[in-house]
Amino acid sequence: MAGNGKWGARSTADEVLAGLDLTGRAILITGINAGIGQEAARALAARGAHIIALARSQAVARAACARIGGRCTPIACDLADLGSVAAAAAAVRALGIKLDVLMTNAGIMAPAACTRLYGVESQFLINHVAHFMLVDRLVDLLADGTGRIVTLSSSASIQFAPREGIMFDNLDAQRFYKPFVFYGQSKLANALHAVELSRRLAPRGIVANAVHPGVIASTKLGRSLGFPMNLLLPLAGRFTKSIPQGAATQSMVAASPLVAGVTGEFFADCAVAQGNKLMKDPGLAARLWDVTERIIARA
User: Which of the 8 DSSP states describes residue 142?
Assistant: First the structure.
């Protein structure tokens, strides 16, 4: 599926899901308290999907579910705390249901100051490691033959990631810290994770893809940006997507029958797009997998 000629950069989540009946589908989404995560959850719930809604606290998740509507189960999951991630996975398992989609949507972007969590820089931990752990603990609940994993990446994985892809010798940012380089690295890690998942899960018929949602000025993703970016981003509105438009690609990849069977790809503007060339490096993806497992094991 290179493109269908029907949807594109200005399509909305409601448009790409129009006419679908998702009754009986269970879709887990992280970061549902605001922005494109909440919009994707709302649009999917409006078509009958049961949303397993993860946010940083139970209160925040419960309030988000009230805004999303439909069948929505709130679960606390603080991605900065791997203990919370483990507890969230246990809570999902306790529901006793099969999952149709795992959508790892939450993230942080380019904080001006470096913070370290579990011995690595915070963007790498929150955007990649915590989601890796969550998926690892829930992937067996995905339905064989039809299950989907949707990993939110970004064009930053192409534009800002370091030349070598992942700085395995500087994951703690002790050598240097540049906010957007580390953001790009974490988003490339997301894309590489999707590629490796697609390879490992192929025998089960489960697909995994990475998504660039587009630049969305009104999302809260940029809340951690320092001056002057935190002032410039809202002014870029005419060149960016709205939240409904930003949620379209991930909603399509999660539920559209047009994407059935497509795996290991990078999507943007509701079509397969060109990701970072390092996505085709199986050695890099495998090394990242091993290193991530070791970070989690020592937590």
Answer: B
Q: What residue ranges define each of the domains in the chain, with the CATH number in brackets?
A: 13-294 (3.40.50.720)
Q: pLDDT category, 171, cuts 50, 70, 90?
A: very high
Name the catalytic one among 8, 84, 118, 177.
177
Q: Is 177 a catalytic residue?
A: yes
pTM: 0.93
Q: H/E element holding 190?
A: helix 179-201
Per-residue pLDDT tens for 25-61? Answer: 999 999 999 999 999 999 999 999 999 999 999 999 9
Buried b (16+ CB within 10 A) or exposed e, 143-172: beeebbbbbbbbbbbbebbeeebbbeebbb
CB contact at 8 A, 31 and 68: no
The answer to whether the peptide bond before residue 228 is cis (omega within 30 degrees of 0) is yes
In order of 34, 36, 61, the CA distances from 229 in angstroms are 20, 20, 28
